[in-house]
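[Q] Does anyone have a clean structure-token version of this?
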Amino acid sequence: MLLYRRTVEALHAAGIRVVLDLPLNHGASGYERQAGDPKGLKPKATSAQQEAEKTWDSWNAGFRYWNFADAGTREFLLDAGRYWLTEGKADGFRLDYVRGVPHDFWAEFHAAMKSTKPDVFLFGEAWQDAAATGPNAEDIATYYAAVPGKGPQFDGMLDFPLQMVMTDAFARGTADASDLEHWLQRTAALYGEAGRPVYFLDNHDLSRFLAWTDGNGQQRLLAALGFMAALSSPIVVFYGTETGIKGGRAATGFTDSGRIAMPWKALDEPLIERISKILRTRAELPALTRGARLPLLSDDRVLVMRKAHPSGDVLVGVNLEGEERTVTLPVAAAGSRSGPWTTLIGGAAPVAGEDGTLTWTLPALSTSWAK
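[A] Here you go.
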């Protein structure tokens, strides 16, 4: 605990907020409840009830599954959250396997954590690993809906549908740029105003993004990250992605092939710097992190959008072609600004013509930003 406290203090001193991974569906079967139950709530567990839980038991995972029909168990789990916000000084939680916990408990948890720390950030993982994009999106939408009489459940949800589409479009090259636009619009409609997706390219349960690529892997990764980082929502970069970890085989659904050691003695410093530039630029421009997204063009290989913000707009252009592509837009599509555009990442800046058009040449397999 001392090392944990020192780590949190150092991160806070550097202006970094700390988000802990908190599983509330299950705990270790060997957990000593008497020592960890200061209020004497005597939390109760059940045998595996859901298919996922039965699968974990078949792997000898050694879990106990909390009994949410028991009031003491629910209070025990709320206290666990409160403890890590107060004693642990955490700033948020990534809530694991939320599908294993009732919706009404998540609403209680949200209320209790906000009461404890009003600016806490709570986002969940709801994933049907054998299901397609549509069923996943519909399931995630249920966690953005407020529970009658209890309130909201989460501040955000990991967005598996767009992760699947980004993998197909950028890594595998099997989806169109218009599919990216379609899924952004479809999930926005499904999630509603409360929806705050947390975007990511890969994680500990999935094949690495680069495992799907067949040539031009880093170029595809930078294009995908540039697109994702231009969306007004939190993003997650999995450890090692920034240095080009490829991992094992590519497979749909759950796999642990990406859980490999960090190559500390063989870091790809040029790639790290290119990705760092994307993230630094994102942090500096409110249009990228908080701007309204205005679609301007999408077809099978190209997507262009404007991120609008009072501090200044940013144009975002995605080109999935293996060669550069020049697009032409009405100058009015770029907003009311005047003066030349400048490149932030990617190729040359857009150029306004005397004929009232804006011409932008996008490099092959890339995402470009201009302001």
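[Q] Thanks! Anything notable?
[A] The first strand starts at residue 19 and ends at 23.
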